[in-house]
Amino acid sequence: MKQILWFRRDLRITDSAILHFAKDEVLPIFIFDKNILNKLSRDDKRVTFIYQSVLNLKKELKSIGLDLAIFHSSPKEVFESLKNEGFENILCSIDFDDYAKKRDEQIAQIIPIQTFTDSFITHPNDCLKADGTPYKVFTPYYKNLSFIWDSHKLIELDRNENLKLISFDYEKVPTLEELGFKAQKLVDFLQKSADELIKEFALKIDNYKVDRDFFDKNATSTLAVHLRFGLISPREAFNKIKKLRSGTENKEFFIRELFWREFYNYILYHFPRSEFENLNGINVNWNEDETVFQKWCEGKTGVPIIDAAMRHFNQTGTMHNRLRMIVSSYLTKNLLVNWKKGERYFASKLLDYEASSNIGSWQWAASTGADSVPYFRIFNPYLQSAKFDKEAVFIKSVLKELKDVEPKKIHSENGVQSNIFLDYPSQIVSIEFSRKRAIDEFKRANNEKN
Ligand SMILES: Cc1cc2nc3c(=O)[nH]c(=O)nc-3n(C[C@H](O)[C@H](O)[C@H](O)COP(=O)(O)OP(=O)(O)OC[C@H]3O[C@@H](n4cnc5c(N)ncnc54)[C@H](O)[C@@H]3O)c2cc1C
What we know:
Layout: E1 2-7, H1 17-21, E2 25-33, H2 34-37, H3 45-63, E3 69-73, H4 75-82, E4 89-93, H5 98-108, E5 113-116, H6 138-144, H7 146-149, E6 164-165, H8 194-202, H9 208-211, H10 224-228, H11 234-243, H12 248-270, H13 290-298, H14 304-316, H15 321-334, H16 339-349, H17 355-365, H18 381-388, H19 393-398, H20 407-410, H21 431-449
Parallel strand pairs: 1-2, 1-4, 2-3, 2-6, 4-5
The structure holds flavin-adenine dinucleotide.
């Protein structure tokens, strides 16, 4: 029996469904998908990271007597070329975003596909209400899954040791330049393995629940990118955290966060239109002024915490969770810009970009989602920065021009602008005015829906 093992977002050899379920003769492959790559800029940091991870996977596969054929093409072309080579099927892990679903439907017409839920702990159909419909709110969904998150260890999949490598041209490996990209400098934590990150996190997990919101504290696991590309399976991450000898409360809190990732995948699966539409069906009259959106993207809104977060994001491709909440609230509420624009902008740069988490989180911030904040709860960016960056350490590390400004001024509206010698943009909108405008508009939209 001949099978193709198509590695996509599961770039690992431990706890791998495809290496577990494969039967006999295998051709492991990775495709640098031209349909995706052609839309990215030449300096996309994620491609450097994926490229390194694919070469590493090839090395690991070789260490267990296998190898990895690497293509730079479209999946359709690759499988058309393999169609008459006698393969029984293709094994791969499943993805539920629109592009992935259409791609897999197309490929299944060429060679049958067998998919596995290997990037998430649960399959979205594993957790339904008594009447068979999906949950829309996180807490009851999570409670329903207590039999999973309460357990000490999830089953990990061992490797079939008897696989035989099909002979193929494994030597041809395109360079990053041949793929059309320039090597990028990556943030430090991406040079580390998932195991190393978990070891470092183990030293600080006891403060996770309290410290995780302070963006100058580096108190979170930074595992999101590794989870995104499957350098560690979520089951293995779960088991490793459960095994730590630290207090249960913080561990439980971390596991709960992991299930937010599950929940958003669940929502995208059951409500696929949420990729394109307001999930709660309201019709908001968004602000179409493009210059306002551009100022947000460039970090020139005149609100120090927003500008620092966005400029840091543009430089590194990373953003702390609390900052993501603040900038998404500011864009969708204070600036009243459609969440889809923010979602697309994050998607274009975020190293840990995960369609389901990103779409779900943006809809949450915009109060248009499944389990949303009420529309009248709007973050005040100045109160947020005063609370979570009291000494303005993070803000000053990015906005060097504010290095001599008192933190109190940075945390008050127009405080920085009151210093006429500073070259700092004026605020696009006043916080109070824009807050009221958003509440009025969301109230109208919600009333008209009901
Ligand atoms: C507007 C917005 C957009 C976001 N877009 C993404 C995205 O594209 N990809 C992504 O992985 N996360 C996204 N998040 C969630 C969250 O910001 C990141 O998962 C987190 O910052 C990653 O850092 P960490 O690994 O140190 O997290 P930790 O605090 O260490 O959490 C551990 C893991 O749990 C998961 N997780 C934690 N919080 C969330 C959450 N709120 N939603 C979903 N999963 C969560 C992640 O996989 C994370 O790695 C978004 C949040 C917001 C508000």
